[in-house]
Amino acid sequence: MIFWFIAIAVTAIACAALLYAAGSRTVNAAGPELADGNRDFGLVLAGIDADLAAGKLEAADAEAAKGELAREILRLKAETQQVAARRPEMGRAPLLAGLAGIAALALVVYAQLGSPDLPAQPLADRVPASATQEVDLDQAIVRIEAALAANPDDLRGWTVIAPAYMQMGRFGDAVQAYRRIIALSGPTPDLQTNLAEALMFEAQGAGSPEAMDLLRTAAASDPRHVLSRLYIAAELTRQGDYPAAIAAWNDALALSTGDEPWLPAAQQGLAVAQNDGAEPVDGPAAALDDQQAEMIAGMVSGLASRLAEQGGTIEEWTQLVRAYLVLGDTAKAQAAFDEAVSAYPQAFDRGELDTLALGAGLTIKGAKP
Q1: Going by C-beta distance under 8 Å and a sequence separation of 6 or more, which residues neighbour residue 157?
Q2: Residue 260 included in any domain
Q3: pLDDT tens, 70-90?
Q4: Last residue of a domain, one of 81, 113, 145
Q5: Contact 244, 232 (CB under 8 A)
Q6: Is residue 43 part of a domain?
């Protein structure tokens, strides 16, 4: 019932505002206003008398001016009467009847078509926005693939579909798409790095010699290309070539200005390489007693439940994986890392998380479509 009280009150306020606006007052009248005109003409007449008394006007000129003023007053009066005669007069009764009819019609129509008493739909029964987006993405991919089958030299189509394949976890298709882009437009450091990324994801953490060759070529062709150097350093760390990894991390860090989003991940990667592949552990986390472990396990359980139900930021996923590793539960750390990769399929969206996973011996199993 509270809904209907609010609806009726809002309708009454709207009708009152319309009634006030459509009242019988003269607003922005098209014709001249005689009352203001009479005041102005009185001032003009007084001015004529003052000029006559001061000797600025002759008596004949003053009489002529007064006659012209009188004719102007008569003309204004006639125009005012004509405007008043043309203006339609509407009584308040028709106006009130119209507003009442509109209000009643609005309420009746809503009562028939609306559902104010319908209970809220449970969250479980609602279609997630992400599901709709996935359907839309799938449909868009099908259309683009059909267009590319008809015109395989459409560079724009390949440029659009390649990152979409990466997002969907179709890494083999992404590899072929980036190869086609390079064939049509020529190699660039960015394209070579994108192809290398797709190859590494396709290899499922096993490494790819072709990807490393592409990354080294990209880094050599552009002395300031950071992304290729970051991938080289991460791959060398994964391979266990820590001296070369340290040099690669330092090369990437040398290009930093101090506020890049990848900087924490690169610094963490350098620390892992300097520690011979082991994740540095600070302070008391290295030796938890039973009470501390139980407390952390409770906090971790709450974070894991929330991330599973609602998702979260990459920082929260990193916190969860790190917590499992501190607790020594590698299996849950791997499962949480797999879910994070599914939520953030682009490698350098994850940054610190990948470095943490590589240092702990976790593997990248690829994103879920």
Answers
A1: 144, 147, 148, 151
A2: no
A3: 777 777 777 766 655 555 555
A4: 113
A5: no
A6: yes
